[in-house]
Amino acid sequence: MKRYLDDRISLDLGKKMVFLVGPRQVGKTTLSQQLIEASGKGQYLNYDVAEDRRLIENQAWDRRVPLLVLDEIHKMPLWKSWLKGVYDGRTAGQQLLVTGSARLDTFRQSGDSLAGRFFALRLHPLSVREWCEFTGAAPEQAMTHLLERGGFPEPCLAVSNQDAERWRRQYFDGLVRNDVLEFSRLHEVSSMRLFAEMLRSRVGSPLSLASIARDLHLSPVTLKKYLDILEALFIVFTVRPWHHNIARATLQAPKVYFFDTGLVLGDSGLRYENLVACALLKHVEWQQDVQGKSCGLHYIRTKDDAEVDFCLSEGDTLTDLIECKVSDTKAHRALVRFADQWPAARATQLLRDLRHAQDLGRIELRPAAAWLNGLAA
């Protein structure tokens, strides 16, 4: 299937090397193979495969192919300086696509060795907009399907819900059991798995690592490291509170969401909020990666526990206030309060079950499916 980043990657490859990162099985390999087919001839090498690893380390690939795809090379010692040499010494006109399942921070920490030589893009699971464009489904049908299956291509395209759930169990087990070892030690895997399981029922609430640490008989420092690893592996992402002072925002409790909505444990409202979080993150990171905008995804919560689920920012300005509701058409009290506090921000109450858009003063009540279909990606 054609993905939302296909055309952008093709365009960027004509200018620089491209780094494409995202969760395992989100579609990076399929996208790479489609680009190779479109280029007429190319070569895909995965550092995790022994034979491919030998070719990579010896730089023995076909020098004449127009597109070379290197997967998971961040696992190679001294890969940054090695890749700089490969890029600078490649055959004239050869395009280079580097893919991986480690978070983009891995590449951003590369220092000057790769400065100015790459564009970085993050591939996300399928959204309402992307599913509508691929299948021709109405937004409401797309949202219902994604709430049930999650946005990863294989379960989304599976013939039955049973097949999707079998995939999900194997996927989650494999991530925690295998990929965690890249960042941690063997004896920590069971503790990290238990931590990840606990997070599945804590979606959408400010996360108290101290409380979970007491339950697991671990230190909050250890759990902070585990959370960083789960983020690095694209299992979860965090949404931090809005604050003009970035350092203060970092110190406050984040909310945690899963890249795979199907992993969320709880009622349908929690899965719905997680789906919206995924869509907003994809929207924000598209603008960051493709349009170069300085935008962000946050939430707002005050000391008196007034909270709005999400807010979007551009620079130091709030642009959107977003509250998720299943069917409540009464304006959310905190949303009204914050709309008055930030009058320049658009205040939207997204309802999963709403037939027609309505306006209650400054509060816009909108059907969630149609609104999500209008996001950037």
In DSSP terms (H or I, runs of 4 or more residues), the helix count works out at 16
Tell me about the largest β-sheet: 8 strands, mixed
H/E element order = HEHEHEHEHEHHHHHHHEHEHEEEHEEEH
Instruction: Bin the strand percentage.
Output: 15-25%
- Roughly what percent helix? 40-55%
The structural domain count equals 2
Low-pLDDT regions: none
* Tally of strands: 13
Structural class: alpha/beta
Give the strand order of the largest sheet, numbering strands 1, 2, ... along the chain.
7-6-8-9-10-11-13-12
Dominant shape: globular
Radius of gyration: 21 Å
Query: Gap between N and C termini, in Å?
Result: 15 Å
Mean pLDDT: 91
Q: Which tags fit this structure?
A:
377 residues; alpha/beta; Rossmann fold; 2 domains; 8-stranded mixed β-sheet; 5-stranded parallel β-sheet; 13 strands; globular
Could you explain how this protein is built, in words?
The protein has 377 residues and is of the alpha/beta class. The protein has helices at 6-13, 28-39, 50-57, 79-88, 105-108, 128-135, 139-149, 153-157, 161-178, 189-199, 209-216, 220-232, 246-251, 268-291, 333-341, 368-373; strands spanning 17-21, 42-46, 67-71, 95-100, 118-122, 236-241, 255-258, 295-301, 307-314, 317-325, 346-351, 358-360, 363-367. It has 2 domains: 6-122, 3-Layer(aba) Sandwich (Rossmann fold); 128-373, no CATH class. It is 43% helix and 20% strand. The strands form 2 sheets. The chain has an 8-stranded mixed beta sheet with strand order 7-6-8-9-10-11-13-12, sandwiched between helices. Strands 2-3-4-1-5 form a 5-stranded parallel beta sheet, with helices on both faces. It is globular and about 65 Å long.
